[in-house]
Amino acid sequence: MSTTVFLVILLSAVLHAGWNAAVKASGDRTLSMATVSMAGSFMCILALPFVEGPPPEAWPWMFAGFLGSFGTQAILARAYSTGELSVAYPLTRGLAPVTVTAAGALLFAEMPGPLGLAGVVAIALGVALLAADSMRAGGQAGTSTLGLALSAAVITALYTLANAKGARLSASALDYAVWSSVPNGVVWLGVMLVQRRDLKQHLRTDALRSLGGGLVSNVAYVLVLWCMRQAPVALVSALRETSVLFSILMGVFWLEERASAWRWMAGGMICSGLVLLRSA
């Protein structure tokens, strides 16, 4: 993996953890997740005239990616309401690479070497520590968060593979990202209207978070798709999920969540996985 790809993936990881932390910091997580997604989709709608449409063979993968992305966002919004960012987000994002590695070998005929596999395992062990910490300290709330995060992790792995396939079939990562991001916000708008949520009031008080989160999420998405066109999807996915490390830091220093020894040990395991993946 080249240094450029490595650094771009890390940047994408920081951005992804950042906008999720912003959603967690809001008063209404579901409404905030919806408006961030809507803002991102609106930006992509404005960009449609300037990008090339995906080829026909990419559309089924795009649809699958959309379903997975929307499902994950909805589950995460619920998980953020029952648990901490530095537990829910790492569990969701950190477990996905294990599934991606196995499925990627079948879909793309890409199998990481020994160092790459060791890096994926190290990240998985870090996530296991987080899960244990959640179950030990969270009681019933921890169990609920764990179940939601595990569900989101499986869906994340599936839509990661779908988006990687669609992006590789498209002319560029930007083209695919713009087109595939449009439906998400539209569906969120429909859901909020059906639920009779007060979008106007929320946007009046939280417009900056929504617009900033939408922009940051779009940039993070384009960057990771570009990397998946340059390097094996399993390695990109695993390295991208080092965003869990940044979510731990943001949870502790921004959201004032607790910093147990287990959580810091998990962060150390994730860092070791990062080093191994860089060497792969």
From TrEMBL:
Transmembrane segments: 30-51, 58-81, 87-108, 115-132, 144-164, 176-195, 207-226, 233-255
Source organism per UniProt: Cystobacter ferrugineus
Phylogenetic lineage: Bacteria, Pseudomonadati, Myxococcota, Myxococcia, Myxococcales
Stated name of the protein: EamA domain-containing protein
GO BP terms, alphabetized: lipid A biosynthetic process; lipopolysaccharide biosynthetic process
Annotated signal peptide: 1-17
Chaperone found in the keyword field: no
Keyword presence, DNA damage: no
UniProt keyword annotations, A-Z: Cell inner membrane, Cell membrane, Lipid A biosynthesis, Lipid biosynthesis, Lipid metabolism, Lipopolysaccharide biosynthesis, Membrane, Signal, Transmembrane, Transmembrane helix
Family matches, as PANTHER family: 4-AMINO-4-DEOXY-L-ARABINOSE-PHOSPHOUNDECAPRENOL FLIPPASE SUBUNIT ARNF-RELATED, SMR FAMILY PROTON-DEPENDENT DRUG EFFLUX TRANSPORTER SUGE
